[in-house]
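Tutorial, part two.
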Amino acid sequence: MSKKFILPISIIILALGIFVGMKIQDAVSDDKISSQVRKFNDALEVTSRYYVDDVDSQKLTEDAIKGMLEGLDPHSVYISADQLKRVTEDFQGSFEGIGVEFDIINDTLTIVSPISGGPSEKLGIQAGDKIVKIDGVTSVKMSREDVPKKLKGPKGTKVNVTIVRAGLPDPLEFEITRDKIPIYSVDASFMYNDEVGYVKVSRFSATTYDEFMKAMGDLKNQGMKKVVLDLRGDPGGYLDQAFKMASEFIPAGKKIVYTKSRIRDFNEEYVSEGGIYNDIPLIVLVNGGSASASEIVAGAVQDWDRGLIIGETTFGKGLVQRQFDLPDGSAFRVTTARYYTPTGRLIQKGYEGNKYKETANADVEGDNIEHTNDIQDSARPEYTTFGGRKVFGGGGITPDYIIKLDTLTDYSVQLRRLNLFYIFTERYMSSNRNNIESRFKTAGEFRDGFQVDDGMLSDLKNMASEKEVAFNEDEFNKDKEFIKTSIKSQIARDLWGNNGTYVVWVENDDQFLKAITMFEESIKLAKLKQ
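Running the prediction step on this input gives:
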C-alpha cells in the first residue's frame, strides 16, 4: 500500500515545490524592483533638494526613463505626450485641420499641395499659394513647428488666411472651416502601361490595407494583369496591416510571419487567410528605408517564392514593441518579441544597447545588377525558400536582384537641400500653367509629351547661382537626367498630385525599370498560369 501512494505523493510534493519556488521567485523579483524604485526615488529627492539650481523633476524622471530604455535596444523608447499625439495622428490615418501640405520657402509659408477632398482644396486654394497672414497676424518668418499650431484645430472651427497668388495683384482672403483630414499611406497608384500596375505604400497605418485594396481594385478595373508593389522608404507600422496585405498575395494556410518571446502569451503566428490577388504576377521594390512591416511583406513573398524582390537590402528591424501608456498622457514602448519570416529568418540586424552594429552588406559586392544567389556572405546565415532558393537572414531582406542607385553629386545635393526644384517650378508655373493644362490632360500624356528644355535648365542654373550654389559642369552633366526628371516630376505634382510625381519619376528609376523586365521570371518562380 505504501508503494501505491508513493507516486501520487511525490507528484504532489513536486508540484507544491514548483508552486512555492515560483512564489518565492516572484517575491524576490518584486523585492528587487521595489528596492530599485526606492533607490531612484532617493536619488531624485536628494537631487531636487540640494542641486545648485532649481530642477524640473518631471524632466529628470523622463530622462531617467529614456536612459533605462536606451540600454535595452534601438526601438524601446519613451514618447512624450506631444510626440504621442503626432505619432497617433500619423498611424490612425487622419487629423483635423485645413488640409494642406506646406513648406517654408524664403521665410514664407507656401502651399506645396492641398490635400484631396480637404476644405482648402474645396475653396480653390492652390499649390504655390503663399499664406502671409493667419487670423490677421503675419505668418512671414513663422517656424515649421509653429504652423500646425495655427492651422490645425477641432473639426468645425474656423481660421482666416490671407493668400498671395502669383499673377494676381491683390491678396485673397479665405475663411476655412477645419475638418477631418485623411493621411494617406498609399502615396500613388496608376497603370504604367496596358498591363502593369504600380502601387506605392509609404507606411502601414490603420487605414493602409483598405487604401491598398481600393487602389488594387481601381487598377484591376483598368486592366491590370501584373503589379509592382513599391515599399521603398516605408518604415513600417501596424503588423496586422502587413499581414492582411501579404495575405492578398499568398494562398490561404501559409504562414506569413511569427513572433517569439520569453513570455508565452506574446508568441503569435499569422497564417494567410487567402486573398483575391493570389495569382497576379508580383514584384516588390525595397531599399534600406524599408523596415518592420515592409520586411514582413517582402520576407513572406520571398520565402514562398511568390514573387521577386528587387532593389537594395532592407533596414533589418525585426523587433516587436508594445506600447504602455502613462498617467500624464505620455507612453513608452518596450520590445517584447522578435519576428521571423516563414522559413525562420530573423530579420533584425545586430545591436548593442540602442546602437546598431556595423555589419557586412551584400549590396556592396558584385556588379550594379546581380542575382542574390550568386552572393557569398559568410557574415549572414543562409536559409532556403520553400522553392529551394538561397536567401539570407540576420540583417534585413536581401533582394533577389540588387540594383544600386547612382549617388548624386554635390551640385544636385545642394539643389535639393535649398529646395530649388520646387522654387523653380513655382516660378515656371506662374507663367506656364495654362499652356501645360491645355496641352496635357493626364499625367501620362505629360510624361510622354513634355520635355525639360535647355532654356529651363539655364534658368535653374541661374537661380542656383543666385543662391550661391557654384556651377560645376561635370557634376551637372553627370546628374542631368536626374535634374530634368526632378523638374518634370515637380510640375506633374503641381497639376496631378502625388500620382503625377510618380508617373513621371519611374521613367528615370533604374530599380523600377529593372522590375518591369522581370515579370516572366516572377511568373515561373511562383508557378503561375498565364
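Residues 6 and 12 are 10 Å apart (CA to CA). In part three we will examine how such features are distributed along the chain.
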